[in-house]
Amino acid sequence: MKSVTVTASRSYEVLIGRGLLDAAGERVRAVSKAETAVIVAGDRVWPLYGERVRRSLERAGFRVLNYTLPHGEQHKTLETWGALLNFLCDQHLTRSDLLVALGGGVTGDLTGFAAACYQRGCGYVQVPTTLLAMVDSSVGGKTAVDLPGGKNQAGAFYQPLLVLCDPDTLSTLPEEELRCGCAEVVKYGMLGDEGFFESLRRTPVREQAEAVIERCVTMKRDIVREDEFDTGLRRLLNLGHSFGHAAEKCSGYTILHGQGVAIGMALITRAAAARGICPPETVERLCSLLAVCGLPTECPYGLEEMAEAVLSDKKRSGSTMHLVVPEAVGRCRVEAVPVEEIPLWLRQGGL
Ligand SMILES: NC(=O)c1ccc[n+]([C@@H]2O[C@H](COP(=O)([O-])OP(=O)(O)OC[C@H]3O[C@@H](n4cnc5c(N)ncnc54)[C@H](O)[C@@H]3O)[C@@H](O)[C@H]2O)c1
């Protein structure tokens, strides 16, 4: 088993190991004296893993309740969040009790935000079951729900007590979802580790899941330690996201998030090469790795459409956008770009 310690406003362990689901009880008991633990899981994940986690928590002496969420981003809403809070209140949970988020990023974000707000804050544990949630969303304490006006528009920074990643759960994850997680994994390689980037070409992620998760979590930990509240360095994690969100939006969300991130990384890297910020071989290396992972590298939308979508994105602040720009495989920088220059960057990205 591997362990990574995150030091933020609260310190906690991220444990990564096969079979951790069945050891959840003892691990959670080591960080919580709660009487009651509520397992919050999506309606696809609960039938797969819910009972195992329940039994393990009961063995460790918790009274266990479960709450099932409808799956999908369209349910990451204030309504679903409010219904969970009402359930906790109806069950007379106290702030010394515990929530256990079992599932992907949607479940983790929503449960974390409920934990942040229930009685002004109760403890929660993340048990991620998607690659994306293991390498990214379960670590770092960003919790949120979507509003009609945009994704993640209501939320809080609220760190978990513990994160338990059991890579065995990836065996049931649909291939498409795994590929989306791979886009974030490639992103970490681009951000800070050329050797890791190369290892992804040699060995598929499924065959080295534990090592991949540990590497990504360690990199995220290092970034969060410097910038928990996302005012500087943490912006690096948005590599590929500004243009990626725009591609998702143009597609009416038929392009999945990870596919959008892949397209966005390819676009920004082409633009960086056109500007002489990175060598042309960086584009080739990125695009060929994304292709190996089964991810797209070409944007199917035109310049005008994309520019409009980029500029309506929430990451724009005033007249400037912060773009994460590759300088090489393994090294990126944040660049403040005047919004009127965005169409030029997109054109240089190949549109
Ligand atoms: N908090 C953060 O820092 C952060 C970072 C990145 C993304 N996010 C958020 O994460 C969310 C996306 O997360 P996601 O990609 O995990 O999507 P998701 O939570 O929607 O899960 C994807 C699908 O896989 C199913 N599933 C989950 N685990 C499974 C398993 N082991 N076997 C079979 N099916 C399984 C789910 O039911 C769902 O249908 C977005 O809402 C995004 O905003 C948050």
Task: Provide a descriptive summary of the structure in words.
This protein is of the alpha/beta class and 351 residues long. The chain has 13 helices and 12 strands. Strand 7 (142-147) and strand 8 (150-157) form a beta hairpin. Helix 10 (257-274) runs antiparallel to helix 11. Nicotinamide-adenine-dinucleotide (NAD) is lined by residues 42, 44-45, 48, 71-73, 76, 103-107, 109, 129-130, 132-133, 136-137, 140, 142, 151-152, 169, 172-173, 177, 180.
- Quaternary state reads single chain
Beta-strand content estimate: 15-25%
Tell me about the biggest sheet?
Answer: 7 strands, mixed
Poorly predicted residue ranges = none
Termini gap: 45 Å
Q: Say how many strands there are.
A: 12
Structural class: alpha/beta
User: What molecules are bound to this protein?
Assistant: nicotinamide-adenine-dinucleotide
User: Helix amount, in percent?
Assistant: 40-55%
From the alpha carbons, calculate the radius of gyration and give it in angstroms.
Answer: 20 Å
